[in-house]
TrEMBL record, chain A:
It is found in: Cell membrane. The chain crosses the membrane at residues 12-34, 46-64, 71-89, 95-120, 127-147, 167-195, 216-240, 246-263, 270-289, 301-318. It comes from the Bacteria. Its main location: membrane. Pfam families: BPD_transp_2. It is a multi-pass membrane protein. InterPro entries: ABC_transp_permease (IPR001851). This is Simple sugar transport system permease protein. The keyword Transmembrane applies. One of its GO terms (molecular function) is transmembrane transporter activity. Coiled coil: none annotated. Keywords: Cell inner membrane, Cell membrane, Membrane, Sugar transport, Transmembrane, Transmembrane helix, Transport. GO terms for cellular component: plasma membrane.
TrEMBL record, chain B:
GO terms for molecular function: ATP binding; ATP hydrolysis activity. The lineage of its organism: Bacteria, Pseudomonadati, Pseudomonadota, Alphaproteobacteria, Hyphomicrobiales. This is Simple sugar transport system ATP-binding protein. It holds the Pfam family ABC_tran. Keywords: ATP-binding, Cell membrane, Membrane, Nucleotide-binding, Repeat, Sugar transport, Translocase, Transport. Gene3D superfamilies: P-loop containing nucleotide triphosphate hydrolases. It comes from the Bacteria. CDD domains: ABC_Carb_Monos_I (cd03216), ABC_Carb_Monos_II (cd03215). PANTHER family: CARBOHYDRATE TRANSPORT ATP-BINDING PROTEIN MG119-RELATED, XYLOSE IMPORT ATP-BINDING PROTEIN XYLG. Belongs to the ABC transporter superfamily. PROSITE patterns: ABC_TRANSPORTER_1, ABC_TRANSPORTER_2.
From TrEMBL, chain C:
The keyword GTP-binding does not apply. Residues 1-23 form the signal peptide. The lineage of its organism: Bacteria, Pseudomonadati, Pseudomonadota, Alphaproteobacteria, Hyphomicrobiales. GO terms for cellular component: outer membrane-bounded periplasmic space. It comes from the Bacteria. PANTHER family: ABC TRANSPORTER PERIPLASMIC-BINDING PROTEIN YPHF, D-XYLOSE-BINDING PERIPLASMIC PROTEIN. Keywords: Signal, Sugar transport, Transport. It is found in: Periplasm. SUPFAM superfamilies: Periplasmic binding protein-like I. This is LacI family transcriptional regulator. Pfam families: Peripla_BP_4. GO terms for molecular function: carbohydrate binding. Belongs to the bacterial solute-binding protein 2 family. Residues 34-291 form the Periplasmic binding protein domain.
Length: 340, 517, 336
């Protein structure tokens, strides 16, 4: 579709522009390998959450996942607390790391399945459901951690995820890219992907066509939960400590990234590559402003401006390419509901 | 193209439509319509579903804007009118769904428009209750309804449908309309109420109010008299005093084909039973029994609330039956969800293709393979895109879609093509039974022909088909038998080859119980 | 349509460049850079600290000193800013951590990169060259509580407020306050450690709730800068000024009205301006490779005789004597 190619181009252009701008105001140090690596290692946490939000939105019917960061924190906290009772990070670093990673992933998956089940079977509106689970996850993390930060430590494997590079690219970013590629492949090549996008476009038609709607919904939120778990691992690896209330601002930022990536909040359309580029763009802009010593408030303003620009341009482009579609969905179209 | 009727009288037309066109996406709903309405005249807008009748009415009442053309109201030219402008000009519409406010009383519903129109769309000042009552009483009397306090204060949602229709008409009268448009006003009225309505219409005409009917009931049109305007495929194909046309002629003008003799059905069904339904029970249907043979085409019809829709949804698994037995090809099957129906080989073409069938923003190809997504995937869970493209291409070929680019969004196709996509899609599951719900509603004549031929070919190949429709000629031309439903039960079985449309029509109506007051 | 989108794109780019232009000058210099990063920008406490940083910059024209902070009370956001400054390659960081534990990883990377790290309000931070405290936190908490007990007459129900359960210093203050209250068997602690997240309005709502829940409550000990304002307002509105005691950390100017009305019994504070100056002075000393000795005078009021002891990590703990307790009678001496 012409629409998605256009958005992709726009995102690439924005990213390019930000890199150039950064280089200009910093006399080149913005593009130093240290900074590029530093920025690259800041993207994965929020990027993974944004992909989760994207999937939830694509499912349609008001799909969204507000519990991402809370689940990420919960995964880190619970996994750290439980695993450190069995394995010690200092005496058996690799075993601890593996146990921690497995634990975090499992908890993320479980949390996601809970979300999916509540939404699919109890038919709770996604925004209300994930708002509730967000508070539940955070509350559970407070209880398990006693309200304090939990030290995960720096056992070898985790430490290298947090700090090391492979071919000059931070390992955390590689993990993020890999996860994104996996999700993209899922959407492109599997029945799940087709079902998800069609369902988001027209849930009623999906029902009539016999799609396994509940299965798709649970899978969607489960994947989002899984990504949250991975985000929790990366947070732990980079910060050495995990805490129940880390990243509370990520909730809205993840949604911002998804919307800026052209994901349709009403469902049916979303592209992982766009989400990745969008996350990178927001990171670049944020770091750019920090480099320039500008107040954080300017950053919020700049993000808002970027989002509005993107949405405005997006509307015109869509109108330009596909006038027929916009009006075909007009309710007063000659639908077969004439006098009977 | 017909010429607008301007009579010899002095009364100039107060409403004219000149070269009105309307596009809905890729669909050319109105192709240059010229109409004129003079005071005191009666007009009957006739045509099949989807011919543009509803669209032209919505344009006249300001609900939608035309894509091109001019509206002339009392001599003033407009590119489009707002609802308030139309109301102020005296154009009142009683839509099929009545558009009453169910939680308000009779008096409020009747007089609200009048107050709105007088204040040009604003209800800023305090409500003048006394005036409300007076207006309501006057209008209700003219409509033949009671005018006592109790009735005025009755909440509209508590009234039976027939009374509500008359209240809606009373509302039109209250605003001292110049033109009252009535969309299918007599669907649920008893004979007595229909007579009453015709009396109301006469009174309106005597007060120089023009009336425009949109209806299928040709008998009533003849009783009322006036002018017939026949629409087909978005154009006016004939206009003139209704007495100058016979029913046959009107039907032919509406459908574009002659009814007699053109029967698509030629082959005979086999003797093997394909489907047997016993004592099926679901909300809206009671103890339904039917059977279908292989290669047989069964038509099912009835009024809107006769249970025919519920029967279709029960077979398709969308609104599963609560009890009863369904046997398909010798095996008893349970249809609890749409996926069950598909798995057992029951294909379903939904009634509302836009809301229930198609994924409008998605490509034609994706729509066509929607039912077989899991069948197209291999052991690793990867969908075979190649095969999907092949299947879609073959289907498009067979259903003769008028585009080769299958990546186009399906929303860009015309109604007829869209319907063909849905039928083609249903064939991907190699169904034994195909249930078509209103297969040619809003579909142009050319597409109808293609669809009927396709249906016949499928039957000849041994598939069993059930067509649920209120297009009586369609059923008479295509089916072997026709079942008539009423109040959730099957009340008549008619041999399609022998029957006439009149017979069928009577069968649908006569079994309707007298609606109580 | 395409030209419109191009125009908009150019517009955004132009806006971004014009925003960045003033910043461009800052970066292209060779002066050593000391970047102060606070918990959250835009609240009175850290606005006051920025005056200290500005004063330092004025007194040291050979150093580029500035302050920044996140717009929200989120440690992840503060982390981002610190990360970017580390990547930018500043010479020294002066950080008031929202949550010391969260910053450990990145501060370690900073030190590895050769950046001097000075912290404040984080005496458990391991990855820091020096942590500056205005006073011994235990002593301060005890002093606050003692003043509260005095007002309460050693009897009655009392409760505590903190910025968040993760605020190290706040938890220390209420912790030693609780210890002190044990001296008074008549004082009963109810619903301790209410989190305020530095939100004056939220604190006000919570205080109202507590006043409703315990109509006979007699005392509040608060921690975050805005807490005393929120609780004070609630007390004032309930008409309990002078009847319920409130002692907490707060700045004189914002607390003036409530001190006068008696809603606030006494405020405790240290001058964030001086703390900010002290952090930057220490950073400068460390940049110049000078040693921090016990008892040295930093040249900043309240830090003229600091104690320097070993910190939890490889760095030191620098404790000053800048505690102030003010009430209605003497707050006007302090003009901030």
């Amino acid at each position: 579709m012409g629409k998605s190619a256009g958005q992709l181009v726009m995102l690439i252009v924005i990213n390019g522009l930000l890199l150039v701008l950064g280089a200009l105001i910093s006399g080149g140090s913005f593009l130093s390998s240290y900074n590029l690596q530093s920025m690259a290692s800041q993207v994965p946490e929020i990027g993974l959450l944004a992909i989760g939000v994207m999937l939830a939105m694509c499912a349609g019917q008001g799909g969204i996942d507000l519990s991402g960061i809370a689940l990420a924190n919960l995964s880190g906290v619970v996994s750290a607390v439980i695993m450190s009772t069995f394995v010690s990070a200092s005496t058996d670093p690799s075993a601890f790391s593996i146990a921690f990673i497995a634990g975090a992933v499992l908890i993320g998956l479980l949390g996601g399945i809970i979300n999916g089940a509540l939404i699919a079977y109890l038919k709770i509106t996604p925004i209300l459901c994930t708002l509730g689970t967000q508070m539940a996850f955070m509350g559970l993390a407070v209880v398990v951690s006693g309200g304090k930060a939990v030290t995960v430590g720096s056992p070898a494997l985790l430490s290298s995820i947090g700090n090391d590079m492979v071919l000059q690219v931070p390992i955390a970013f590689v993990i993020f890219a890999f996860a994104a590629a996996l999700v993209a492949a899922l959407l492109r090549f599997t029945p799940y992907g087709l079902w998800l996008m069609l369902m988001g476009t027209n849930p009623k038609a999906a029902l009539y066509a016999g799609f396994p709607k509940n299965g798709v919904l649970v899978a969607t939120y489960a994947i989002s939960g899984l990504l949250s778990g991975v985000a929790g691992i990366i947070i732990a690896a980079r910060n050495v400590n995990v805490k129940f209330d880390y990243g509370s601002s990520y909730l809205l930022i993840a949604i911002l990234i998804a919307v800026m990536a052209g994901v349709k909040p009403e469902g049916g359309y979303g592209r992982v590559l766009s989400v990745v580029l969008s996350a990178i763009a927001l990171q670049l802009m944020s770091s750019l402003l920090n480099f320039g010593g500008l107040s954080n408030f300017v950053r919020d303003f700049a993000w808002g401006l970027l989002l509005l620009t993107f949405l405005a341009v997006g509307r015109y482009r869509i109108a330009g390419f596909l006038p027929s579609i916009k009006r075909q969905t007009n309710p007063s179209a000659p639908s077969p509901q004439g006098p009977k | 193209m017909c010429v607008p009727l301007i009579s010899q009288s002095d009364a100039a037309p107060f409403l004219e439509l000149k070269r009105i066109e309307k596009w809905f996406g890729g669909v050319h709903a109105l192709r240059g319509v010229d109409l004129a309405f003079e005071p005191g005249q009666a007009y009957h807008l006739l045509g099949e579903n989807g011919c543009g009748k509803s669209t032209v009415i919505k344009i006249m009442s300001g609900a939608i804007k035309p894509s091109a053309g001019t509206i002339v109201l009392h001599g003033q030219r407009f590119a489009s009118v707002t609802p308030i402008q139309a109301l102020s000009a005296g154009i009142e519409t009683v839509y099929q769904d009545l558009s009453l406010l169910p939680n308000l009383t009779v008096a409020e519903n009747v007089a609200l428009s009048e107050q709105l129109v007088r204040a040009n769309g604003r209800l800023a000042r305090l409500f003048d209750r006394k005036r409300l009552r007076q207006t309501a009483e006057r209008a209700l009397a003219a409509a033949g309804l009671p005018t006592d306090r109790a009735f005025l204060d009755t909440v509209v949602s508590e009234l039976p449908l027939a009374s509500r229709q008359l209240v809606a008409i009373a509302r039109a009268i209250a605003t001292r309309a110049r033109l009252v448009i009535m969309d299918e006003p007599t669907t649920s009225l008893t004979r007595r109420e229909v007579d009453n309505l015709i009396g109301v219409v006469e009174r309106l005409r005597s007060e120089n109010v023009a009336v425009l009917f949109v209806t299928h009931k040709l008998d009533e049109c003849y009783r009322i008299g006036g002018n017939a305007i026949v629409f087909r495929d978005g154009e006016c194909v004939a206009q003139g005093p209704i007495q100058g046309y016979s029913k046959q002629q009107l039907a032919e003008l509406m459908t574009g084909r002659s009814i007699e003799g053109k029967r698509y059905r030629s082959a005979a069904p086999s003797q093997q039973t394909l489907l047997s339904v016993e004592r099926l029970e679901a909300p809206g249907i009671h103890q339904v029994n039917l059977s279908l043979r292989k290669g047989e085409i069964l038509g099912i019809t009835g009024l809107a609330d006769s249970g025919r829709n519920e029967l279709a949804m029960a077979l398709a698994g969308i609104a599963p039956a609560m009890s009863g037995t369904v046997t398909l090809d010798g095996k008893t099957i349970h249809i609890r969800r749409p996926a069950d129906a598909i798995a057992h080989g029951i294909g379903y073409i939904p009634e509302d293709r836009l809301a229930e069938g198609l994924f409008l923003d998605k490509s034609i190809r994706e729509n066509e393979i929607a039912l077989i997504i899991s069948r197209l995937s291999n052991a690793f869970g990867i969908v075979n895109q190649q095969e999907g493209r092949r299947v879609a291409a073959r289907l498009s070929e067979e259903m003769r879609l008028n585009t080769k680019d299958l990546e186009l969004p399906v929303g860009s196709l015309s109604g007829g093509n869209q319907q063909r996509v849905l039928i083609g899609r249903a064939l991907t599951i190699a169904p034994k039974l195909l249930v078509l719900h209103g297969p040619t509603v809003g579909v142009d004549v050319g597409s109808k022909d293609t669809i009927y031929r396709a249906i016949q070919k499928l039957a000849e190949a041994g598939m069993g088909l059930i067509i649920i429709s209120d297009d009586l000629p369609e059923l008479l031309q295509n089916a072997d038998r026709i079942l008539v439903m009423n109040s959730g039960q099957i009340v008549a079985e008619i041999d399609a080859e022998q029957a006439s449309e009149d017979q069928l029509y009577k069968a649908i109506l006569t079994n309707a119980p007298e609606t109580a007051q | 349509m395409k030209s419109l989108s191009k125009k908009l794109l150019i517009g955004v780019a132009a806006a971004a460049v014009s925003l960045a232009a003033p910043a461009a000058t800052v970066v292209a210099q060779d002066k050593p850079v000391i970047a102060t990063v606070v918990k959250i920008s835009g609240i009175p406490w850290f606005d006051r600290m920025s005056t200290g940083v500005a004063a330092f910059a004025l007194a040291n024209p050979d150093i580029d000193a500035s302050q920044s902070g996140p717009a929200t009370a989120d440690s992840a956001q503060q982390l981002q800013i610190v990360n970017d400054l580390v990547a930018k390659g500043v010479d020294a960081l002066a950080v008031v951590p929202m949550d010391p534990a969260v910053l450990e990883g990145t501060l370690q990377r900073a030190i590895e990169r050769g950046i001097i790290v000075v912290t404040h309000e984080a005496d458990n931070q391991t990855n820091t060259n020096a942590d500056v405290e205005a006073f011994n936190n235990a002593d301060y908490g005890t002093a606050l509580n003692e003043r509260l007990a005095q007002c309460m007459g050693g009897e009655g129900k009392w409760t505590t407020f903190v910025g968040s359960l993760g605020s190290r210093t706040h938890m220390q203050w209420v912790g030693s306050g609780e210890e002190n209250a044990k001296k008074y068997p008549g004082m009963a602690l109810v619903d301790p450690n209410n989190e305020s997240f530095d939100d004056a309005n939220g604190t006000y709502e919570k205080a109202k709730e507590i006043l409703r829940k315990y109509p006979d409550i007699k005392g509040f000990q608060t921690s975050a800068g805005n807490d005393v304002l929120g609780v004070g307002r609630a007390i004032d509105e309930a008409g309990l000024s002078g009847k319920v005691c409130l002692v907490g950390t707060g700045l004189p100017n914002p607390s003036a009205d409530l001190l006068d009305s008696g809603a606030i019994t006494a405020i405790g504070f240290w001058d964030p301006q001086k703390a900010g100056m002290a952090m930057n002075v220490i950073a400068k000393l460390l940049l110049e490779k000078k040693e921090l000795t016990d008892g040295m005078d930093l040249g900043v009021e309240g830090y003229d005789h600091v104690s320097v002891t070993k910190g939890p990590g490889a760095g030191v703990l620098v404790v000053g004597n800048g505690m102030v307790l003010a009430d209605k009678s003497n707050y006007k001496q302090y003009l901030f």
